[in-house]
Amino acid sequence: MKNKPFEPLAYFKMLAEKNRLCLEHGFKAVFASGPDNIEGIMNEFRKTQNFIVIDDTTDNNVHSNKPGWFTKSVYTVWVLAGTTFNDHDDRAEKMDLCRRIFWQFLSKMIRDKAKLVFGEGMYYLATERIYYKELGRYSFNGATGLYFMIENDVPTNLIYNADEWEE
Q1: Strands (E), 26-111
Q2: How many other CB atoms are there within 10 angstroms of residue 7's CB atom?
Q3: I want to staple 156 with a disulfide (CB 3.0 to 4.6 A). Which of 71, 84, 113, 139 is the partner?
Q4: Using an 8 Å Cβ cutoff, are 71 and 62 in contact?
Q5: Is residue 139, in this structure, part of any structural domain at all?
Q6: Contact in structure between 128 and 151 (CB atoms under 8 Å)
Q7: What is the DSSP letter of 41?
Q8: CATH label of the domain that carries residue 96
Q9: What angle do CA 123, 125, 129 make, to 5 degrees?
Q10: Boundaries of domain holding 43
């Protein structure tokens, strides 16, 4: 697998599908295009209580580190668990579950990056700094959890090619 390019979206889906806590608690891996579409997924709580939502849109920037150029893509993954309405203890228990899943995802990402398990492109996954935010109790009605954001910097070829331009 080391010669294949690293595909972050497929990787995050695999994390959800292989993690024992996710499996034991019925977490379903789904894709959403931006935070606005997460509300639509919440409507599925009648069928599924717990979700790993992978945002299939990214925030990007192109930057230079002096000798070369890179494209930095920021990926967002939500860990959401359904809760019982007005049950503070259930909400606290589900938040703890989401935290444990996040820490397990992070430890697996660190291990996989060190071993380049999913290709050499995984080298650029910024596991040394990951932003995450826990949701307030009123963020989503009937759910709690957190989201994390991770950067992936990949080399970008910006060599000027005169054949691409009319002079």
Answers
A1: 27-32, 50-55, 59-64, 69-82
A2: 14
A3: 71
A4: yes
A5: yes
A6: no
A7: H
A8: 3.30.70
A9: 125
A10: 8-164
Total domains in the fold of the chain: 1
**145 in Cβ contact with 91 (< 8 Å):** no
> Measured between alpha carbons, how far is residue 139 from residues 21, 42, 58, 62, 144 in Å?
23, 12, 22, 32, 8
Q: Please report whether residue 70 resides in a domain.
A: yes
**Spatial CB neighbours of 88, under 8 Å, sequence gap ≥ 6:** none
> Residue 3: inside a domain, yes or no?
no
Strands 143-156 and 69-82, sheet pairing: antiparallel
Q: What is the pLDDT of residues 19-49, one digit of tens each?
A: 999 999 999 998 888 666 666 566 665 667 8
Question: How distant, in Å, are the alpha carbons of 36, 63, 85 from that of 91?
Answer: 23, 41, 9
The answer as to whether 125 is a domain residue is yes
Query: pLDDT tens-digit profile of 138-158?
Result: 566 778 999 999 999 888 899
